[in-house]
Amino acid sequence: MPYAIDETHDPNLKSWVESANDPQSDFPIQNLPLCSVLGSVEDEPEAVSAHIGVRIGDMILVLDALVQHGLLEETEDDWWVFVEDIAESGQTGNLRKRLQHLLREGNNELRDHPQLDEMLFPVSEVELSTPILASGDYTDFYASINHATNVGSMFRPDNPLLPNYKHIPIGYHGRASSIVPSGTRIKRPVGQQAPDEGARTPNFGPCKLLDYEMEMGAIIGRGNELGSRIPIEEAEDHILGMCILNDWSARDLQKWEYQPLGPFLAKNFASTVSPYIVTMEALAPFRCAGAVRPEGDPQPLPYMTSEDNSKAGGVDITLEVWLASAQMREQGMEPIKLSTGNFRDMYWTMAQMVAHHSVNGCNMQPGDLLGSGTVSGTTRESRGSLLELTWDGDPFANPPKLVPGTQRTPIKLPTGEERKFIADGDEIIMKAYCEREGYRRIGFGECRGIIEPADLG
Length: 457
Fold this sequence. Notes:
Elements: E1 34-41, E2 44-56, E3 59-62, H1 63-68, H2 79-89, H3 93-103, E4 120-122, E5 127-128, E6 138-141, H4 145-155, E7 171-173, E8 179-181, E9 186-187, E10 190-193, E11 203-206, E12 210-211, E13 214-220, E14 239-246, E15 249-250, H5 251-257, E16 271-273, E17 278-279, E18 287-288, H6 307-312, E19 314-315, E20 318-324, H7 326-330, E21 336-342, H8 350-358, E22 369-371, H9 386-389, E23 411-412, E24 418-419, E25 427-434, E26 442-452
Parallel strand pairs: 6-22, 8-16, 9-26
Antiparallel strand pairs: 1-2, 1-5, 2-3, 3-4, 6-7, 10-11, 12-15, 13-14, 13-22, 14-16, 14-17, 18-19, 20-21, 20-25, 23-24, 25-26
């Protein structure tokens, strides 16, 4: 069930890390997201190990260093054992309270420690990897009915949603090995595309219709045994937190391959995640009701239904997508905003995804990443992919305005360039944050990636 709001969410809390007190900071003391910091191994300077950390303002606090210096009550100083302790409970509540105590304005226990410079580092001086624990399996869902309706309307205007959509959270098993951290450059994928009209042989070459998908990811903290299932009432106890996810998509490869078994090479070449796990405890003030089903829609089956999920299964997260072309960066231009959406618009909640994923006895494991699927609203400016954003149809108009999937209005850039899909050199920047009156704004940081030309060697 969703976490309670407590003293850790007090908007008046401030930190002696001054940058955390900026009202527009993603990382005030009320947030403290987990991250993975790369560093050299003692006595092996060429070796690299990962350390668990948290972000506070413009600084990174390394937690296993706190353990080593006796500031955290852990007997183990091995970082992975420390992470497993968090995963075993699936929660970070006690850790959150202890860290807030150490970082709170007026408490000098950590601030005046003689080894502070071994524990606290400017974020500009550290290298962040994929988030701690986000290294298991990867499942991507299709949980936005608005996205599904948009895409279905392009190709099946008379029947945009397949019969199962309103009964189960649709998903597919993705490729965990190609999940990469924010900032990683992405090679344009190469593969087969549908034959030209009248031809029998498919085309082969670089993807021509490269796209992004604005998603959120949920990271499993505590798993279940093979053959057991996770009841919806307990589903959120198994979720450690959330991050931003860009599910890069090769639309022309996807169109050729997706029947009969779904996405394959169109999706498995790369998925980018932001470096921070915002914990479920930190998100407590921003919970909202799950999607209200329109009259006539079927209600979820009992295994995906609970009072808590109906009342507070959603999360009010604002999502933004920005683009900067190579020309824009060369001319010193700022990125332009492409869209603004909200995670509260999802048809299926995270708890429902977990309950459904495990109902057949599938064993979820610490570190599994569950992608939400593209987050889209009912307006054009809230669409979470270029496939939708440049499409001229509107299934939510009254009456619906549906046009062929090829009829598109390109995005105009300040350089005079136009985009229907992503060009080489384009940088896609995703941002996410939560705001609610009476609470501190918290954020997820950024999820960035620049597209490089295809490798044709």
